Structures are given as C-alpha cells and as structure tokens.
Amino acid sequence: xxxxxxxxxxxxxxxxxxxxxxxxxxxxxxxxxxxxxxxxxxxxxxxxxxxxxxxxxxxxxxxxxxxxxxxxxxxxxxxxxxxxxxxxxxxxxxxxxxxxxxxxxxxxxxxxxxxxxxxxxxxxxxxxxxxxxxxxxxxxxxxxxxxxxxxxxxxxxxxx
Length: 160
Hints:
By secondary structure, the protein is mainly alpha-helical. 76% of the residues lie in helices and 0% in strands.
C-alpha cells in the first residue's frame, strides 16, 4: 500500500510541470506570431506610401516642365511671326510709297504735256477754240515724297 501514493505523487508533479510548460510555450508562440504580423504590416504600409508619393511628384513635375517648354516655344514662334510680318509690311509700305511718288511724277509730266500741247494747239488754230479759262497749273513736285529708308530698318535682307 506504500507504493501507490508514491506513484501518484510523481505523476501529479509531472503533469503539472508539463501543463505549465505548454502554457508558456503557447504564450511565447502567440507573442512571436503577433510580433511577426505587426512587423509585416508596418513594412508593407511604409513601402506602398513611399512609392505612390514619389511617382506622383515625378509625373507632376515632368508635366509642368513640358507645359512650360511648350508655352515658351509658342511665344517664340509668335514673336518671330510678328517680326517678319512687320518687316515685310514695312517694305510693302515703302515700295507702295515709291510707287505713289513716281505715279505723281508721271501724272505731273503728263499734265504738263497735256496742258502745253492743248495750249499750243489752241493758240495755233482759230481763236474760237481757245479755252475761256486757263488750265489749272500742274504741281511743281509730287505731294508725297518717298522716305529715305523703310520706317523700321532691319539688318537682314532677303536673298532673291
């Protein structure tokens, strides 16, 4: 009858020790699992946020630079077109001015020729055809003088 209590005591002690160790191991495993899960979540969130921010900033900066460059090129093209427009407009005006100037001279000499011819013709014929009132005197010079150069002087010329 003395062996039975000894066996029972040993078994009870072993069982208690095994349960405590299992509980401790389970707690450690749960803590390790929780720690591993938390670490993975933090890394994933940080990586995603950083990548998205960098891509957005780069795309926005590149778009603004391209837009600015395009606007600058359009402005330069507009200035170039205006420059050539005024350049050729001035030359057109300049040569038109000369045309008008020589046209006045032509009119002046034609007028003189007509006047003197008519006057000579009427004086050599009968007096009844003589004009009753004198012909208007032609101008001594054209009313418009040509300019010495175009209003806007450019330093480049067309090679034609």
